Amino acid sequence: MTSLNSLQNVIYEPGIPYVGTISEPLEPGTSIVLRGHVPGDSDRFQVDLQCGSSVKPRADVAFHFNPRFKRANCIVCNTLRNEKWGWEEITYDMPFKKEESFEIVIMVLKEKFQVAVNGRHVLLYAHRIPLDKVDTLGIRGQVTIRSVGFCFSPVPKSDMPQFTLPYVAKLNSSMGPGRTVVIKGEVNTCAKGFNVNLRSAKSRAIALHLNPRLNSKAFVRNSFLQESWGEEERNITCFPFSPGMYFEMIIYCDVRDFKVAVNGAHSLEYKHRFKELGDVDTLEVDGDIRLLEVRSW
């Protein structure tokens, strides 16, 4: 879950329907975080990113996010332009349940909106209206909203020079408890998988091998020690990657294990098999992604 401390302009318990001006321009990297609860009698609710708040004529809606519970459980997304709806994009992988709480994170990217619910990626929606037209947030329907907050932090631009893959580089300092590696990128639209390795340069040992496989939705972890692979670990609550999505992966080295988070949600832990952590000094990244940024400290 996203920390409230990292959010700006937080609005608590807004009345529904809610219509409010967004205080800063929506730019790639902005996240909108909504926390709330679905009542037991809810048929539907909607979150709209609007171009103004006009009622007559109705303001354009750049992104209409509309979970529906009656008949088929689904999320309908659309755009309203000149008081006419476009074509619906429907997601049947429904993350909302009646009488349960939720956290929605809408991340603004250069070419699309990316939505996660309760830390799980749900959908992508390509822009049909320029971002600079969007200045208003609307919430309507049968829903209780506890808070709305914004995070105005830029993401690396996908049109910037990218890292060439395979990427191999020394870490700023050798691995050990408290060390962190951050990898930012975008999964290719037809991706099968990619690899992230933390290894020792002076030997062939790989202390941590991360291998998300999109075709099977498996997040494989392993180590390569004494010239052989060990036993794979695959257990995971939910697979955090999807074709076309932007991601920020954080690898944190703790005393007993590596902890991995994706887009702010804890994903897995991997107990250390390679004990000489101080020898781990190299990062490798390869596979079906656009690598945008790498940092370590």
Summarize the topology.
Elements: E1 8-12, E2 18-21, E3 30-37, E4 45-51, E5 60-68, E6 74-81, E7 84-85, E8 89-91, E9 101-108, E10 112-117, E11 120-126, E12 136-141, E13 144-152, E14 167-170, E15 180-187, E16 194-200, E17 206-213, E18 218-225, E19 228-229, E20 246-253, E21 257-262, E22 265-271, E23 280-287, E24 289-296
Antiparallel strand pairs: 1-13, 2-12, 3-9, 3-13, 4-5, 4-12, 5-6, 6-7, 6-8, 9-10, 10-11, 14-23, 15-20, 15-24, 16-17, 16-23, 17-18, 18-19, 20-21, 21-22
In short:
It holds the Pfam family Gal-bind_lectin. By secondary structure, this protein is mostly beta strands.
What is the percentage of strand-forming residues? over 45%
CATH class call of the largest domain: Mainly Beta
Largest sheet: 7 strands, antiparallel
**N-C termini distance:** 23 Å
Helix content: under 10%
Pfam families: Gal-bind_lectin
Protein name: Galectin
Domain Galectin: 18-151, 167-297
Keywords: Lectin
What does this structure look like?
- This is Galectin.
- It comes from Vicugna pacos (Alpaca).
- InterPro entries: ConA-like_dom_sf, Galectin-like, Galectin_CRD.
- The strands form four sheets. Strands 2, 4, 5, 6, 7, 8 and 12 form a seven-stranded antiparallel sheet that branches.
- The protein is 0% helix and 53% strand.
- It is elongated and about 70 Å long.
- With 297 residues, it is an all-beta fold.
- The protein folds into two domains: 4-152, Jelly Rolls (Sandwich), CATH 2.60.120; 167-296, Jelly Rolls.
- It is built from no helices and 24 strands.
- It has strands at 8-12, 18-21, 30-37, 45-51, 60-68, 74-81, 84-85, 89-91, 101-108, 112-117, 120-126, 136-141, 144-152, 167-170, 180-187, 194-200, 206-213, 218-225, 228-229, 246-253, 257-262, 265-271, 280-287, 289-296.
- The model has no long low-confidence stretch (mean pLDDT 93).
- A hairpin with a 2-residue loop joins β10 and β11.
